[in-house]
Design brief:
The structure is a homotrimer.
Chain A lengths: L4 H11 L9 H13 L4 E6 L3 E2 L2 E2 L3 E10 L5 E4 L14 E6 H5 L2 E2 L21 E2 L2 H5 L5 E11 L2 E9 L6 E7 L11 H15 L6 E7 L3 H17 E7 L9 E3 L7 H13 L4 E2 L9 H4 L8 E5 L21 H20 L3 E3 L19 H16 L6 H8 L3 H13 L3 E3 L1
Parallel strand pairs in A: 7-8, 11-12, 11-13, 13-16, 14-15
Antiparallel strand pairs in A: 1-10, 2-3, 4-5, 4-9, 6-9, 10-12, 14-16, 17-18
Chain lengths: 426, 426, 426
């Protein structure tokens, strides 16, 4: 049932060229492609002007083309080549300007002279172009033709939502961004990995928890979604992940929830500690994405992020260098697997309580390995340690941390002990 | 309104020559000089023999003159030159003694041969002289004339008390010593700095808390004061400082309360960490002053000490070397400022609660800096972090520690947010 | 009243040759020798087949002789030389076998070629011999005569129990093993030290707590005892020690209870920290003895172990090298003393509360040392620190840890203060 890294990567390649923003046709196009993998994904439209807590859904932005033509008549900056060349939410323009005027509308990075920056201006109307700094420096005085064929008008904010029912109405929540244009690690990796995680979850024959998976634009999307569903989420969500920056092959990163010790925090750190012990642990002060909304006072959802290279912490971040060369099938697949391990831990956790006083006689039940040796001694040790801490107060996850074993080693043992009547699920 | 270090230092120079002890005219003279700066200071007299918990107010001690005349008729030790030459609370003597007898009444420091030690004998009657060890070694056999013109009779223990009313009857408590003769860091620095802190507090147009400021002799003074006011103090005091050893320019020192985590402990450490991160943190086991009484079982006031060179921990301590050369305007002023910062933190602390779900839209309220750049990014970060933790459970002080910012940076932001209706004071 | 290390060692020499196992005459013989020191020791017999929680008392095993005779007619392995040569609980055999067949019943240690291992097979019937690996390698093909004159039949499990009543029916529990044959550190040291600890306790004129001291076979013995007495133990036991591996002179070891912070844990670590600060602190995951039963979920007794070289952690463990050369009078006596210190701490602990506000005037009560100097200053400091923390919330043990003094320094001071009416026992 497991997907491969190649499939995730191919999906990223397919979505990469689409010009996404926090609203508009690019978002709809992206969601419709995701729906090819998740037929039950529902698309929702929230009209411009809708009040969401302290915010208002902005006008919808769409763009068809944009370019700069130099005094010699050459098209030197072209939206068709890269959608990063236009400042997101640029108002339309069609004018001839001299270099000084043009320059006031240009954005570039002196420290990364061959990279085009990713710039947006959602809440202040302006127009602008982004380009490599070395190209900007080479511009000569003269008259330039500039054209942005965009419009900014009443429409709606679009998001996708998939509910996968489980035995319990308690929920696990997955959220990811669909507002970034042609950028790869931050952010096509998030929706691509989440799509295949959702597919894996949809294929499970038995789900303990209900899964709520949303594909939203960052910030305004989570605020919008919370304004509609905060009470349900607060009541039901037991754990959740804001999935983003999961595509490259560099070191894993962990961003805790504001509360720092929720079920999600403990699961994520257990899995990372077992699988990738060199992971970087950030502070909630290092936050920057939708954890800002999900963990805000009064909302307080147990949402964490497991990332590869964290937003703001890698040189290609928010530039044209964050492209399909930065992410890899292996990078995407690693993050996908780590999230699956987390979801499996969440699904299989419970508070075990041993039903007999003193150690049970395992030999007579065939729970002792028949072959002796170092490996079997270790297996016996794990059984003994699991039993010793199965006091009805600790969960399997807590026991796993205490006895320094991966939780997935304990689950089959606990199931055997339950089947033998030696253990109860509290 | 801030005083200068020079003014504090000049006041120390003025008080230095007065011969203070735990009772007597030197205390009254000192308090009357303090009253020139604090006209509302009230002097209280508690008669000798009064029972105070397990203690009894001793007889009052006064001294007019004292000297030793050597066999050659030279006045070799003279109270008029330094009041440290006489053991505090010495009984009167007027006699001719040989060197052997005299030597039984001499006190000196072999390890610091040119310093005169500070010695007292409050609760056992004796007489004695203090002198440099090198002078003592040079004494030749012969008949010496010794004279101490003192008296020890029923009188009273004198202390000063200033109450500065605030909006609340909850109190902040400041206590300092007025029992040391000509000694500078320990202790004229305490009453001098406290005098100007009280003056600053008296000049505040708005006080949230009531301030109780006392000038007392060490140990017997605090026991006496507590025997009169313990219940009121236990009910009202939210924070307090035992102000002593605040005059030299060496490293700051912190002595916690017995409880270790009171409001005073947290405020003092926050301020020291922000302003003087290299400060020395002592243990309550290193105590030695009136924290012994204020933090005793059943009293348990939240009293801490912020010092420069801590009593018992600098070479000049309790010797004639602890003189006006050891303390400086800068040293006194630094300690004065640290205490003012603490009092400001106490006055301005509250539990903020954000009134909207999710992050508020700061842009539309002009709470985003208009100029961008590193500094403004930092300012935005502080606002965001303050809001993120304003959950009604943490105080501003706790938030400041959590987000690693000085509390005084948060106060004006919190006020702006309250004014915008985005924040409530819980 | 203190015994000497020589007496403990001589007792170990006397018990060493007896062939003990988890049942049988060796156990009875051992207990009858212990009874010469502890006349009130009661012997209990629990019949084979009795159900004890998840376990069943096995058949009783006795052995009279055993040997291997080689093809040349030489007795090459002889139970009379060392009882370690026979696998514990070996079924009887009397046969002639060739080398290949014999070899399937031999146990040796390739890594320690001159040591005979200690091997048992309590719950699976088999026969076997243990011998040095170098001897095994030298065996030549041919017919061997093997004989084990043992029997395995319904009988009983034997254990000893001594109850020493105290003023309180709350109990201190000591448990030790009597199931190891000729092995010295693990385990004759345990019952030998425990015998003399019990003798010391029996000689105390005043016992605050009731002492329950048991001499049992490991695992099945503690499970049996708990099956009979768990409810009483759970209600009454305030502290306890599983005494084993207390005979050599190497570093002290500490094994905590599962709960990690019981009274026993705190006492043991206080004593070790004060007397042997270099001790090794193990984790409960390193357990292996009867703490597995005493600390199991639902039993949860406050039982810890203070050892010298811990089981499983020294090269001679479970081999013929763990002999009377490994343990010494000094080693045994050191462990004996550490346990006595622990028992004294347990007996003398209480929650002191000072009866006066502020520091009491110690001078007038003669509680200040009359001679001054460094040592007396330290004594004054200890009195002051004890008083400062005698707030009725902390026990003497907790205060001792807080003020970094051995608890036994505080006990006589606390008694003096109680006698003066300055301190109450809460």
């Amino acid at each position: 049932m497991l997907t491969s890294g190649e499939k995730i990567y191919e999906f990223a390649e397919q979505l990469f060229p689409i010009c996404r923003s926090i609203t508009g046709e690019g978002v709809r196009e992206t969601l419709s492609r995701i729906r090819t993998h998740l037929p039950n994904l529902k698309l929702h439209e929230v009209p411009s002007g809708t009040k969401c807590f302290d915010w208002i859904i902005p006008l919808e932005w769409n763009i068809r083309d944009a370019w700069i033509i130099d005094p010699q008549g050459r098209k030197i900056v072209d939206f068709q080549v890269s959608n990063l060349h236009v400042v997101g939410y640029s108002t339309p323009i069609d004018a001839e300007v001299d270099l000084a005027e043009l320059d006031r509308h240009l954005y570039s990075l002196p420290e990364q002279p061959n990279a085009t920056p990713y710039v947006t201006s959602y809440y202040k109307e302006r127009w602008g172009f982004c380009l490599p700094h070395e190209q900007r420096l080479a511009l000569r005085p003269g008259r330039y033709r500039v054209r942005i064929d965009s419009d900014l008008k009443a429409g709606s904010l679009t998001y996708g939502e998939l509910i996968l029912p489980g035995h319990s109405n308690k929920e696990v929540f997955l959220s990811t961004y669909i507002c970034h244009p042609s950028l790869a690690n931050n952010e096509l990796s998030g929706p691509c990995v989440t799509t295949f995680l959702a597919q894996w979850l949809a294929g499970l024959k038995d789900r303990r928890y209900t899964y709520r998976i949303i594909f939203i634009p960052e910030t305004i999307g989570s605020i919008t979604y919370l304004s509609l569903h905060a009470e349900a989420l607060k009541e039901r969500v037991v754990a959740g992940f804001n999935i983003n920056c999961v595509g490259d092959e560099r070191v894993y990163s962990f961003l805790p929830s504001r509360a720092e010790t929720t079920f999600s925090d403990r699961v994520a750190q257990h899995v990372l500690h077992q699988l990738h012990p060199g992971y970087l642990k950030y502070d909630f002060l290092d936050r920057g994405g939708d954890e800002r909304q999900y963990c805000s006072p009064g909302i307080d959802l147990p949402i964490v992020s497991i990332m590869r290279s964290k937003f703001g912490c890698y040189p290609e971040y928010h530039t044209s260098l964050d492209d399909l060369n930065l992410i890899t099938p292996e990078g995407l697949f690693g993050a996908y697997l780590v999230h699956i391990k987390c979801l499996q831990c969440i699904e299989s956790d419970f508070r075990p309580r041993i039903t007999v006083y003193c150690e049970p006689q395992l030999g007579k039940r065939g729970l002792y390995p028949t072959l002796s040796g170092k490996e079997s001694a270790n297996a016996v040790k794990i059984i003994g340690d699991l039993i010793a801490y199965s006091d009805g107060r600790r969960s399997l996850l807590e026991i796993a941390d205490r006895i320094r074993q991966p939780m997935w080693e304990l689950v089959p043992i606990a199931e055997k002990l339950c089947a033998e009547g030696l253990m109860l699920r509290e």
